[in-house]
Backbone:
C-alpha cells in the first residue's frame, strides 16, 4: 500500500508548485523522500560487468513478476522497446502494430533508423486489440515478393488510446495464431502495472503471452528513470550486447534501479487511487458533457476528451484550463489528454473537475 512519504509534498523546498493540478503526464512524478533514501543507500557496482547488485536484484524481480527467465535494465522505455524489436526482426522485415502505437508514433522512427525495420498498421478503436487486426495484416511466407512480418507489437495499457486495457482473451487468440505462423510478439507494457491493478490479472498472465515485454518504472510507478525488458536468458544476453551498442551500457546504475525496486514495493497497488480519481473526474465531466467524455471509456489513469462536437480546439481548451492552474495535453486535432499520477491528490482532482466542468458545460 501507499507509504507515508507519498502523501507528503515531494518537491524540494524552494521549488514552488506552478500548477494546481498537473495532468500533463504520469512521467512528471517527483521521487518521494523515501525513494530518494532508497537510492542513496543502494549498494552499487559496474553494471556493464554485471556487477551491480541492485540492478541484478531489480532484473530478477521484474523477470519473475512477468513470468520470464531474465531481464535487462534500460534507461528508457523507448530503448527497451527498440531492443525488443531488434531481437526479433531482421533488416528489411516488418513489425505490425496498431495505428496509435507508441513504438511507431512516439519513438521517432527508431525501428527504421536503428534496425532497418519497416512497419504496417491496423486500425483500432481507442487502441483496443481485436484479433482480426494483426491476424488479417500479418504476412508470412510471402517469398521474395512481399515484406515478411516478424513481430506483432501490442501496447497495454494503450497510451494514445486513452489508457485502454487489452483483453487477455484477445491477446491469447493472437498469440496462438501468430505462434503457429512463426511470428513473434512483443508487449509494450509501459503501463502494464495499471492494467494489472485495474483487472486483477496477474502480471505474469499478461507477460507469458509474449516473447519480450518492456515495462516502465518512470511512469505511474514514480521512479525518475528506468525501464526493464524481459524475455528468455538467451534473448536477454543478446539484448545486453545491443544495449551497449545503442549506447545504453550504464555503470553504477543501481542508484536508479533502487528507485525502481522501491516503486515495485510501494507504488503498484496505489495506482488504484489514480484510477479512482480519473473515474471520479470522468463521471463529473461526462455528466455535463457526455459527447466529450463517456465515463465508461476511462479504464485506468488516462482520460481522453473528444472535442469534435464542441467549439473548442484542443490548444484553446488546454490554454483555458491552464489559466486556472490545470495543465493538460493537446492530443491530435480533437483530443485533450489528462493523466493521473502519484502527485495528483484528491484536492487537485476536485480542482481539475471544477474547472473542466465549467469550461465544458
Ligand atoms: C512512455 C512510453 C514508452 C517509453 O517512453 P520513454 O519516454 O522512452 O521512457 C513506451 N511506450 C508507451 C506506451 C509509453 O507511454
Residues:
Amino acid at each position: 500500500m501507499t507509504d507515508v512519504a507519498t502523501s507528503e509534498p515531494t518537491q524540494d523546498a524552494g521549488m514552488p508548485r506552478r500548477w494546481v493540478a498537473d495532468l500533463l503526464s504520469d512521467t512528471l512524478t517527483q521521487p518521494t523522500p523515501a525513494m530518494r533514501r532508497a537510492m542513496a543507500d543502494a549498494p552499487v557496482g559496474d553494471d556493464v560487468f554485471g556487477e551491480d547488485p541492485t540492478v541484478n536484484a531489480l532484473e530478477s524481480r521484474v523477470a519473475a513478476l512477468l513470468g520470464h527467465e531474465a531481464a535487462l535494465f534500460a534507461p528508457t522505455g523507448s530503448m527497451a522497446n527498440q531492443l525488443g524489436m531488434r531481437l526479433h526482426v531482421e533488416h528489411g522485415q516488418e513489425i505490425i502494430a496498431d495505428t496509435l502505437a507508441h513504438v511507431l508514433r512516439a519513438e521517432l522512427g527508431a525501428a527504421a533508423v536503428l534496425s532497418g525495420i519497416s512497419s504496417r498498421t491496423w486500425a483500432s478503436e481507442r487502441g483496443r486489440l481485436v484479433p482480426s487486426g494483426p491476424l488479417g495484416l500479418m504476412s508470412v511466407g510471402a517469398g521474395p515478393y512481399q515484406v515478411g512480418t516478424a513481430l506483432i507489437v501490442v501496447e497495454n495499457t494503450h497510451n494514445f488510446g486513452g489508457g485502454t486495457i487489452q483483453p487477455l482473451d484477445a491477446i491469447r487468440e493472437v498469440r496462438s495464431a501468430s505462434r503457429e505462423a512463426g511470428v513473434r510478439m512483443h508487449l509494450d507494457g509501459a503501463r502494464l502495472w495499471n492494467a494489472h491493478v485495474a483487472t486483477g490479472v496477474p502480471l505474469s498472465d499478461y507477460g507469458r503471452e509474449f516473447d519480450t515485454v518492456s515495462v516502465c518504472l518512470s511512469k505511474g510507478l514514480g521512479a525518475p528513470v528506468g525501464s526493464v525488458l524481459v524475455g528468455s536468458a538467451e534473448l536477454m544476453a543478446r539484448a545486453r550486447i545491443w544495449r551497449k551498442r545503442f549506447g545504453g551500457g550504464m555503470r553504477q546504475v543501481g542508484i536508479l534501479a533502487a528507485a525502481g525496486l522501491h516503486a515495485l514495493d510501494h507504488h503498484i497497488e496505489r495506482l488504484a487511487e489514480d484510477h479512482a480519481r480519473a473515474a471520479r473526474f470522468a463521471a463529473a465531466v461526462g455528466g455535463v458533457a457526455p459527447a466529450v467524455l463517456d465515463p465508461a471509456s476511462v479504464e485506468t489513469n488516462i482520460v481522453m476528451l473528444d472535442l469534435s462536437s464542441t467549439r473548442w480546439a484542443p490548444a484553446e481548451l488546454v490554454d483555458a484550463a491552464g489559466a486556472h492552474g490545470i495543465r493538460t495535453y493537446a492530443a491530435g486535432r480533437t483530443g485533450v489528454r489528462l493523466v493521473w499520477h502519484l502527485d495528483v491528490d484528491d484536492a487537485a482532482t476536485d480542482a481539475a473537475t471544477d474547472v473542466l466542468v465549467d469550461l465544458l458545460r
Observations:
- Residues 271-288 form the longest helix (18 residues).
